[in-house]
Design a protein that fits this description.
single chain; 96 residues; alpha+beta; Thrombin, subunit H; six-stranded antiparallel β-barrel; globular
């Protein structure tokens, strides 16, 4: 990724996001704690917390599946990391 684009992505999540802490440091992300209903034989309902952040931060801070993150005072573990467009990643979280 081009360094200028990395800074643009970081600026976007910094302006609209929250500070997130991990073992290697802090970074900014846009936190969503969205409600989700799924049907697998029976209807289950729950909350699916996600964090959108710069892919460069994920790489630099070595965030991987099962990494612990603290966001808005709550500790989460990374369930999976999804690549998005333009140097962004979506971290699907679960309660730690």
């Amino acid at each position: 990724m081009h360094p200028f684009l990395d800074e643009e992505v970081r600026g976007l999540v910094s302006d609209a996001g929250v500070v997130v802490t991990c073992d290697a440091g802090t970074f900014n992300g846009v936190f969503r704690d969205q409600y989700e209903a799924m049907e697998v034989g029976v209807v289950t309902e729950g909350v699916k917390p996600t964090l959108i952040c710069a892919a460069a931060d994920v790489a630099a801070l070595q965030i991987t599946k099962e990494s612990r993150l603290v966001c808005e005072g709550v500790t989460y573990k990374v369930r999976r990391i999804e690549s998005m467009v333009a140097g962004m990643s979506r971290l699907v979280l679960r309660s730690a």
